Amino acid sequence: MKFYSNIYQPNKKNLIKASKLIKSGKVIAIPTETVYGLAGNAYRNDSVKKIYSLKKRPKNNPLIVHFSSVKTMNQEVVINEQLIKLAKKFSPGPLTYILPLKKESKISKLVLNKKHQIACRIPNNKTFLAVLKQSGVPIAAPSANLSNKLSTTRSADVEKEFGKKLSYILDSKKTSIGLESTVLLLGASLKILRPGAITKEMIFKVLRKKIHEVKNQGDIISPGQFKKHYSPGIPVYLNQKKPKPNGALLVFGKQKIKKDIFFLSKRSSLKEAASNLYVLLRKIKELGYKSISITNIPNTGIGKAINDRIRRASS
Ligand code: TXA
Ligand code: MG
What we know:
The chain is 29% helix and 18% strand. The chain is of the alpha/beta class.
């Protein structure tokens, strides 16, 4: 029996409370349009350290910093023409930019990669934007899950993941996109370090420049590229037609088999599949199945990001 909950509705009073908590150095969970974020004041080393320790995240894996606008981003980050063009089209939204940090910036160096660059994004979520504006500080927020595990898309999953160690979670029924943002390295050469809802084709239309897709760099600046990531905790098999013994089948499209079946999207919508992916992977594990087989998922649009995550989940 559960006697209390750490989940709070995002009403005016609680948004003020959450903003105060952030400003004063506490770590809380806030929804974005992609997945839940484990959020802290990006100016404070102690906040950033708390995030790393709560997540059990290796120190060499840098954190995304969230801003309320290009204007506030510009106070800390060396922005360029590419950023301005892309932000006009995609921000607020699920696109993260990697750029140099300004020398005079007071953002904690603990969030940076080893080239001293910062990953930054403007989330398209009312609750997150309200906390950014009210706290008046940039917010460091990796996905709200233990390191190498599945990201969370619902407040109840965040609560299960961290238990009493996390005392404040702002509620959201379900994040809308359900997969983490696209991570894009800007500069002389453009590189997608992690695919997401904003695709290579969409970015190309704006910049008209070659965009590389990085699979597994030798010199890893974005450990999200590590193969072992996004693990549901039981084996995952790709391109399957039926479940293994004691396993479940996660289906994209229609399916004749009736038993141990879970649908990503019956109407074959990649967008719907993306938003259901983590919820279903978690559910199947919780129901006690011993493995997850997944049917083929088209590798176009956000399907690329889905395939990227389930490939990592399966390794
Ligand atoms: O949708 C998202 O991006 C969510 C929400 C909360 O914003 N955040 C998220 O953060 O997915 P995280 O930390 O779980 O994943 C960020 C990815 C990691 O693969 C990390 O290695 C990479 O971005 N990254 C962060 N900062 C970087 C930097 N300065 N240079 C290169 N890669 C970086
Ligand atoms: Mg993550």
